[in-house]
Amino acid sequence: MDSTLHYIHNDSDLSTNSSFSPEEERKSKVQDVVPQALLDQYLSMTDPSRAQTVDTEIAKHCAYSLPGVALTLGRQNWHCLKDTYETLASDMQWKVRRTLAFSIHELAVILGDQLTAGDLVPVFNGFLKDLDEVRIGVLKHLHDFLKLLHLDKRREYLYQLQEFLVTDNSRNWRFRAELAEQLILLLDLYSARDIYDYLRPIAFSLCADKVSSVRWISYKLVSEMVKKLYMASTSAFVVDLMNELVEKFCRCRKWSGRQTFVFICQVRCH
Description:
By secondary structure, the chain is an all-alpha fold.
Protein backbone atom coordinates (compact mmCIF):
# COMPACT_ATOMS: atom_id res chain seq x y z
CA MET A 1 0.00 0.00 0.00
CA ASP A 2 2.81 2.43 0.89
CA SER A 3 4.61 1.74 -2.34
CA THR A 4 1.40 2.23 -4.34
CA LEU A 5 0.70 5.58 -2.70
CA HIS A 6 4.30 6.60 -3.41
CA TYR A 7 3.78 6.03 -7.11
CA ILE A 8 0.36 7.69 -7.21
CA HIS A 9 1.60 10.89 -5.62
CA ASN A 10 4.80 11.04 -7.65
CA ASP A 11 4.24 13.85 -10.16
CA SER A 12 6.88 12.70 -12.62
CA ASP A 13 5.37 12.56 -16.10
CA LEU A 14 6.94 9.89 -18.28
CA SER A 15 5.85 9.69 -21.90
CA THR A 16 6.48 7.04 -24.52
CA ASN A 17 8.03 7.43 -27.94
CA SER A 18 5.90 6.16 -30.81
CA SER A 19 9.06 5.32 -32.80
CA PHE A 20 10.31 2.67 -30.36
CA SER A 21 12.00 -0.43 -31.75
CA PRO A 22 10.52 -3.79 -30.63
CA GLU A 23 13.20 -4.08 -27.95
CA GLU A 24 12.58 -0.54 -26.71
CA GLU A 25 8.84 -1.21 -26.84
CA ARG A 26 9.29 -4.18 -24.53
CA LYS A 27 11.47 -2.20 -22.13
CA SER A 28 8.91 0.62 -22.06
CA LYS A 29 6.46 -1.72 -20.32
CA VAL A 30 8.86 -2.84 -17.62
CA GLN A 31 8.12 -1.81 -14.02
CA ASP A 32 8.94 -3.02 -10.52
CA VAL A 33 5.61 -2.73 -8.68
CA VAL A 34 4.09 -6.11 -9.58
CA PRO A 35 5.64 -9.23 -11.11
CA GLN A 36 6.39 -8.39 -14.74
CA ALA A 37 4.93 -11.68 -15.96
CA LEU A 38 1.61 -10.78 -14.37
CA LEU A 39 1.52 -7.39 -16.12
CA ASP A 40 2.52 -8.95 -19.44
CA GLN A 41 -0.34 -11.41 -19.07
CA TYR A 42 -2.77 -8.56 -18.45
CA LEU A 43 -1.51 -6.53 -21.42
CA SER A 44 -1.93 -9.54 -23.71
CA MET A 45 -5.69 -9.51 -23.06
CA THR A 46 -6.13 -7.06 -25.96
CA ASP A 47 -4.72 -9.61 -28.42
CA PRO A 48 -7.59 -10.48 -30.84
CA SER A 49 -6.58 -14.14 -30.84
CA ARG A 50 -7.30 -14.30 -27.10
CA ALA A 51 -10.90 -13.26 -27.71
CA GLN A 52 -11.34 -16.10 -30.19
CA THR A 53 -9.74 -18.84 -28.11
CA VAL A 54 -10.24 -17.79 -24.47
CA ASP A 55 -13.20 -15.44 -23.93
CA THR A 56 -15.10 -13.27 -26.39
CA GLU A 57 -15.47 -10.57 -23.73
CA ILE A 58 -11.88 -10.64 -22.51
CA ALA A 59 -11.28 -7.10 -23.83
CA LYS A 60 -14.23 -5.86 -21.75
CA HIS A 61 -12.77 -7.50 -18.64
CA CYS A 62 -9.45 -5.85 -19.43
CA ALA A 63 -11.12 -2.45 -19.75
CA TYR A 64 -13.03 -2.93 -16.49
CA SER A 65 -9.85 -3.69 -14.56
CA LEU A 66 -7.68 -0.97 -16.11
CA PRO A 67 -8.28 1.77 -13.48
CA GLY A 68 -7.34 -0.70 -10.75
CA VAL A 69 -4.18 -1.71 -12.59
CA ALA A 70 -3.31 1.96 -13.14
CA LEU A 71 -3.87 2.68 -9.44
CA THR A 72 -1.57 -0.18 -8.47
CA LEU A 73 1.21 0.78 -10.88
CA GLY A 74 0.96 4.51 -10.18
CA ARG A 75 1.08 7.39 -12.61
CA GLN A 76 4.84 7.13 -13.19
CA ASN A 77 4.24 3.72 -14.77
CA TRP A 78 1.36 4.89 -16.97
CA HIS A 79 3.65 4.35 -19.98
CA CYS A 80 3.17 0.61 -19.41
CA LEU A 81 -0.60 0.91 -19.93
CA LYS A 82 -0.96 3.77 -22.40
CA ASP A 83 -0.88 1.68 -25.59
CA THR A 84 -3.28 -0.88 -24.13
CA TYR A 85 -5.67 1.89 -23.09
CA GLU A 86 -5.66 3.43 -26.57
CA THR A 87 -6.24 0.00 -28.11
CA LEU A 88 -9.25 -0.59 -25.86
CA ALA A 89 -10.59 2.92 -26.53
CA SER A 90 -10.74 2.13 -30.25
CA ASP A 91 -12.10 -1.41 -29.84
CA MET A 92 -14.83 -2.38 -32.30
CA GLN A 93 -17.09 -3.57 -29.47
CA TRP A 94 -19.09 -0.68 -28.05
CA LYS A 95 -19.31 -2.46 -24.68
CA VAL A 96 -15.54 -2.16 -24.31
CA ARG A 97 -15.60 1.56 -25.11
CA ARG A 98 -18.59 2.03 -22.81
CA THR A 99 -16.69 0.44 -19.92
CA LEU A 100 -13.82 2.88 -20.41
CA ALA A 101 -16.20 5.82 -20.76
CA PHE A 102 -17.74 5.09 -17.35
CA SER A 103 -14.33 5.03 -15.64
CA ILE A 104 -12.34 7.72 -17.46
CA HIS A 105 -12.93 10.21 -14.62
CA GLU A 106 -11.44 7.74 -12.13
CA LEU A 107 -8.40 7.26 -14.32
CA ALA A 108 -7.99 11.04 -14.57
CA VAL A 109 -7.73 11.29 -10.77
CA ILE A 110 -5.01 8.62 -10.77
CA LEU A 111 -2.98 10.15 -13.59
CA GLY A 112 -3.14 13.83 -12.66
CA ASP A 113 -3.81 16.89 -14.82
CA GLN A 114 -0.78 16.69 -17.16
CA LEU A 115 -1.26 13.09 -18.25
CA THR A 116 -5.02 13.60 -18.36
CA ALA A 117 -4.68 16.55 -20.73
CA GLY A 118 -2.22 14.73 -22.97
CA ASP A 119 -3.54 11.16 -23.02
CA LEU A 120 -7.13 11.08 -21.74
CA VAL A 121 -8.67 14.22 -23.27
CA PRO A 122 -8.31 12.90 -26.87
CA VAL A 123 -10.02 9.65 -25.81
CA PHE A 124 -12.70 11.61 -23.95
CA ASN A 125 -13.37 13.70 -27.08
CA GLY A 126 -13.76 10.52 -29.10
CA PHE A 127 -16.30 9.14 -26.63
CA LEU A 128 -18.34 12.34 -26.93
CA LYS A 129 -18.96 11.53 -30.61
CA ASP A 130 -19.62 7.83 -30.05
CA LEU A 131 -22.86 5.88 -29.74
CA ASP A 132 -25.32 6.93 -27.04
CA GLU A 133 -24.44 3.76 -25.12
CA VAL A 134 -20.88 5.10 -24.86
CA ARG A 135 -21.71 8.81 -24.54
CA ILE A 136 -23.84 8.17 -21.46
CA GLY A 137 -20.71 6.98 -19.67
CA VAL A 138 -18.92 10.32 -20.03
CA LEU A 139 -22.17 12.25 -19.50
CA LYS A 140 -22.86 10.63 -16.11
CA HIS A 141 -19.46 11.79 -14.87
CA LEU A 142 -19.07 14.93 -16.96
CA HIS A 143 -18.61 17.17 -13.93
CA ASP A 144 -16.16 14.75 -12.31
CA PHE A 145 -13.95 14.83 -15.41
CA LEU A 146 -14.19 18.51 -16.35
CA LYS A 147 -13.36 19.71 -12.85
CA LEU A 148 -9.95 18.06 -13.21
CA LEU A 149 -9.07 20.12 -16.29
CA HIS A 150 -7.54 23.58 -16.37
CA LEU A 151 -10.04 26.39 -16.87
CA ASP A 152 -9.05 27.16 -20.46
CA LYS A 153 -9.38 23.51 -21.48
CA ARG A 154 -12.64 23.18 -19.54
CA ARG A 155 -14.18 26.13 -21.35
CA GLU A 156 -13.66 24.40 -24.70
CA TYR A 157 -16.43 21.97 -23.77
CA LEU A 158 -18.99 24.74 -23.39
CA TYR A 159 -19.41 24.68 -27.15
CA GLN A 160 -20.18 20.94 -27.13
CA LEU A 161 -22.73 20.74 -24.33
CA GLN A 162 -25.53 21.58 -26.78
CA GLU A 163 -24.74 18.36 -28.67
CA PHE A 164 -25.95 16.28 -25.72
CA LEU A 165 -29.51 17.36 -26.58
CA VAL A 166 -29.26 15.27 -29.74
CA THR A 167 -29.41 11.50 -29.25
CA ASP A 168 -29.58 8.47 -31.52
CA ASN A 169 -33.06 7.80 -30.19
CA SER A 170 -35.26 10.81 -29.42
CA ARG A 171 -37.19 8.72 -26.89
CA ASN A 172 -34.06 8.36 -24.77
CA TRP A 173 -35.30 10.88 -22.20
CA ARG A 174 -33.00 9.58 -19.47
CA PHE A 175 -30.09 10.98 -21.47
CA ARG A 176 -31.57 14.48 -21.29
CA ALA A 177 -32.45 14.03 -17.61
CA GLU A 178 -28.83 13.14 -16.87
CA LEU A 179 -27.71 16.19 -18.82
CA ALA A 180 -29.86 18.42 -16.60
CA GLU A 181 -28.42 16.80 -13.48
CA GLN A 182 -24.86 17.36 -14.70
CA LEU A 183 -25.53 20.98 -15.64
CA ILE A 184 -26.55 21.69 -12.05
CA LEU A 185 -23.11 20.50 -10.93
CA LEU A 186 -21.34 22.36 -13.75
CA LEU A 187 -22.68 25.70 -12.51
CA ASP A 188 -19.84 25.75 -9.96
CA LEU A 189 -17.18 25.35 -12.66
CA TYR A 190 -18.05 28.26 -14.92
CA SER A 191 -18.34 32.03 -14.71
CA ALA A 192 -21.61 33.97 -14.71
CA ARG A 193 -21.11 34.97 -18.35
CA ASP A 194 -20.44 31.37 -19.41
CA ILE A 195 -23.54 30.20 -17.56
CA TYR A 196 -25.68 32.86 -19.19
CA ASP A 197 -24.26 32.44 -22.70
CA TYR A 198 -23.98 28.65 -22.89
CA LEU A 199 -25.87 26.84 -20.11
CA ARG A 200 -28.97 29.07 -20.08
CA PRO A 201 -30.16 28.15 -23.62
CA ILE A 202 -29.79 24.44 -22.85
CA ALA A 203 -31.69 24.83 -19.58
CA PHE A 204 -34.60 26.60 -21.27
CA SER A 205 -34.73 23.90 -23.93
CA LEU A 206 -34.89 21.18 -21.26
CA CYS A 207 -37.67 23.06 -19.44
CA ALA A 208 -39.82 22.55 -22.51
CA ASP A 209 -39.03 18.83 -22.85
CA LYS A 210 -41.88 16.47 -23.67
CA VAL A 211 -41.07 14.23 -20.70
CA SER A 212 -42.12 15.48 -17.27
CA SER A 213 -39.19 13.86 -15.47
CA VAL A 214 -36.77 15.88 -17.58
CA ARG A 215 -38.74 19.08 -17.00
CA TRP A 216 -38.77 18.64 -13.21
CA ILE A 217 -34.98 18.34 -13.06
CA SER A 218 -34.71 21.33 -15.41
CA TYR A 219 -36.82 23.48 -13.07
CA LYS A 220 -34.22 22.84 -10.37
CA LEU A 221 -31.48 23.65 -12.88
CA VAL A 222 -32.98 27.03 -13.75
CA SER A 223 -33.60 27.77 -10.09
CA GLU A 224 -29.97 27.04 -9.20
CA MET A 225 -28.91 29.12 -12.18
CA VAL A 226 -30.84 32.12 -10.86
CA LYS A 227 -29.18 31.68 -7.46
CA LYS A 228 -25.71 31.40 -9.01
CA LEU A 229 -26.15 34.52 -11.15
CA TYR A 230 -27.68 36.45 -8.27
CA MET A 231 -24.63 35.78 -6.12
CA ALA A 232 -22.23 36.78 -8.92
CA SER A 233 -20.61 40.22 -8.90
CA THR A 234 -22.38 41.18 -12.14
CA SER A 235 -26.11 41.53 -11.52
CA ALA A 236 -27.04 42.25 -15.14
CA PHE A 237 -27.10 38.55 -15.98
CA VAL A 238 -29.65 37.63 -13.33
CA VAL A 239 -31.87 40.58 -14.30
CA ASP A 240 -31.80 39.48 -17.95
CA LEU A 241 -32.48 35.89 -16.94
CA MET A 242 -35.46 36.87 -14.79
CA ASN A 243 -36.88 39.03 -17.58
CA GLU A 244 -36.56 36.11 -19.97
CA LEU A 245 -38.31 33.78 -17.53
CA VAL A 246 -41.20 36.21 -17.21
CA GLU A 247 -41.46 36.75 -20.94
CA LYS A 248 -41.05 33.13 -21.99
CA PHE A 249 -43.06 31.39 -19.29
CA CYS A 250 -44.99 33.75 -17.00
CA ARG A 251 -46.65 35.55 -19.93
CA CYS A 252 -46.90 32.46 -22.11
CA ARG A 253 -50.21 32.00 -23.91
CA LYS A 254 -50.21 28.30 -23.04
CA TRP A 255 -51.11 27.24 -19.52
CA SER A 256 -48.22 24.77 -19.50
CA GLY A 257 -45.75 27.64 -19.92
CA ARG A 258 -47.27 29.60 -17.05
CA GLN A 259 -47.26 26.45 -14.95
CA THR A 260 -43.52 26.07 -15.68
CA PHE A 261 -42.91 29.53 -14.24
CA VAL A 262 -44.80 28.60 -11.06
CA PHE A 263 -42.87 25.37 -10.67
CA ILE A 264 -39.53 27.17 -11.06
CA CYS A 265 -40.57 29.67 -8.39
CA GLN A 266 -41.74 26.82 -6.18
CA VAL A 267 -38.36 25.08 -6.40
CA ARG A 268 -36.59 28.36 -5.61
CA CYS A 269 -38.75 28.86 -2.50
CA HIS A 270 -37.88 25.40 -1.21
